[in-house]
Amino acid sequence: MKKLSKSFITLLLAGLAFNAQAHKPWLLPSSTVLDEKDAWITVDAAISEGLFDIDHQPLKLDGIVVTGPDGAPLAFENANTGKLRSTFDLKLAKQGTYKISMVTQSVFGSYSIDGANKRFRSTEEGYAQEIPAGARDVVVSHQYSRLETFVSNGAPTQTVLKPTGVGLELVPLTHPNDMRAGDTAKWRFLVDGKPAAHLPFSLIPGGVRYRGTLGEIRKSTDANGEISFALPAAGMYMLSASSPTVVPPVDGKPPAMPARRMMYAATLEILPQ
Questions:
Q1: Beta bridge partners of residue 201, listed in sequence order
Q2: For the range 241-247, what are the long-range contacts, defined as Cβ-Cβ under 8 Å and sequence gap of 24 or more?
Q3: Mean pLDDT over the full length of the chain
Q4: pLDDT at 257
Q5: Which residues of 230-263 are buried (b: 16+ CB within 10 A; e: fewer)?
Q6: What's the pLDDT score for residue 4?
Q7: 261 found inside a domain
Q8: What is the pLDDT of residue 17?
């Protein structure tokens, strides 16, 4: 049986809850909007209890993918993983919008055999081999999570905003690097390329430790998976959503695992007017 890593368990649990106590993974760029010939940004990557606080553990960088304005993958530089956070630098050599993302696919499962309960984590390709002959009470849950953020050098572009058609995705009809407090933003959520109707999502602003309250904003999409809403105050926000909707635990037990769960989270900046 494979041992579940602490980092992955934390990442999974972060997708199962919106509350202030849940540890959340995040990517935080030093800037989201620039207009320079040789622009650089530094990205912090961590898992924390306080949103954007460096208080728990680093996010490993081996799953980070950077996509440039032309749709081609880019390498980042000066990667470092410390005790509480990871960091890397990215050169924005071309004008346009960049996407920084981490996509995770895994299978969690459990079964009983010879009177003992067993758990496992595996890949989509290899999970069947984790279940021995004679196993009973087999439960398998396919997990797909997407974590991302966007940065633009010069005028924002659209190439990196095109959906992949896999899992839960945000299609920001209002460009994520062109959102200003008080303006109306329009978003579309998709599940496997189809509208995510009546999907609840959460926006949490950073700086919780200074406010003393979470300040969470909850909204839901319409029947077409879309929503238009007035953007809140300027700042950095964490957008979170999951499908299917999380069912609250009963009698202190963990939430029941559906056959398939998709999670989405993004760090977004709302600019001042």
A1: 219, 241
A2: 241/168, 241/170, 241/189, 241/196, 241/199, 241/200, 241/201, 241/202, 241/265, 242/15, 242/16, 242/168, 243/168, 243/191, 243/196, 243/199, 245/200, 246/16, 246/17
A3: 89
A4: 67
A5: ebeebebbbbbbbbeebeeeeeeeeeebeeebbb
A6: 41
A7: yes
A8: 38
Report whether pLDDT(22) > 70.
no
- The closest alpha carbon to 121, from 99, 105, 102, belongs to 105
Residue 150 located in a structural domain: yes
What's the structural domain count of the chain? 1
pTM of the full predicted structure? 0.84
Q: How far apart are the C-alpha atoms of 207 and 215, rounded to whole Å? A: 10
1 lies in a domain? no
For 118, list phi and psi in degrees, rounded to 5: -125, 150
Is residue 200 a part of any domain in this protein?
A: yes
158: domain range? 6-270
